[in-house]
Amino acid sequence: MVLLNASVQYENLAQLCNDPRARNAVLADMDNIGREVQLRGFEFAKAVTLVPEPFTMENGLLTPTFKIKRPQAKAYFAEAIANMYAEVSASDPTPQRMS
After folding, report:
1. Contact 8, 21 (CB under 8 A)
2. Which Gene Ontology terms of cellular component type are present (predicted)?
């Protein structure tokens, strides 16, 4: 990951997760991998949110069989999801037309 070569200093994982350089580095890696496996344009992520805490049964995001509880995850990350949509809308205000 490019970020590791940038000698980014952080005191805790939460600080790193909130660093835009970390998010951009993760998104760039995802884009590179997507190009390697020839994903279509609509299959690429346009934004990511990094979270320092794992999904666990204790925080209500996993079932006892380690499956994601989708409704709970949607509620838990509602603000982050809204922020990502706003970020994407701000960076590309014109909607893309499918050809």
Report:
1. yes
2. endoplasmic reticulum; membrane
